[in-house]
């Protein structure tokens, strides 16, 4: 374990890299704040999520707000060539919120994927996820269960909010740091395995179905694939970079660690993109939310195109009146 205390690991290894990352976070905040505010407006005032069994989706929006709230402070520290706040309280509070956001986002995204899995692969059987969706208290329980997994980030003042692999005073602190790393990896790897399993089973089910039954299955595939995209872009890369960083740090390779730290911090900034990608999941999960959002915020000439792109073969009836002499004939038209 590294015992080199002469190196200030809270300073940025390369100032230019972190200045660029700070501007990336400014862009994420600039886009993420109005986007999530508009989504929140739709869920509460137009879509009425509590009546449309979309409580889990609403909880993802709340988790994204926790993330968006942290971005200005993170960008400020990077601009000042610091990987963390000089205030230990602020440092721990921000890491607590980031851990809580990540855990909540993953928990509710996986729950949505499991719901689609049971609706498609085990159709006709009792779907316990659908029962949970009708109970708002379940969301509160999920948040409460996430707290014990997030509290270790606040147990001790740790260097740069991450002391694992550094010199520690007691074995208790080493166990705390190790537990935090186990939580970090398990909350990404285990859900990703579940997600891949659900995706494979749903796709196999789609191949076996007849043409008339494929519309619902295509929607289910789009839901789980959108969650796969979020995981692939936001969560998996930073987990891999984290594993490399810990390996380098434990071997006390200081020069390699400077590079690994920059790669890890860059991929962590990339992981904040989930606050911009999650609205795509909402659109695929519930066409009612998509219709409400498009009709509220999109101009008229885009509404038809977006409805067609996300509709996946939905059928709407449009009346076309044809006058022949004194008789009116109404023809149903199918929108492709």
TrEMBL record:
The chain crosses the membrane at residues 20-44, 56-75, 95-114, 135-155, 182-200, 221-245. Its main location: membrane. It is a multi-pass membrane protein. GO terms for molecular function: G protein-coupled receptor activity. It is found in: Membrane. InterPro entries: GPCR_Rhodpsn, GPCR_Rhodpsn_7TM, HCARs. Keywords: G-protein coupled receptor, Membrane, Receptor, Transducer, Transmembrane, Transmembrane helix. One of its GO terms (cellular component) is membrane. Residues 35-282 form the G-protein coupled receptors family 1 profile domain. Belongs to the G-protein coupled receptor 1 family. This is G-protein coupled receptor 109A. It comes from Collichthys lucidus (Big head croaker).
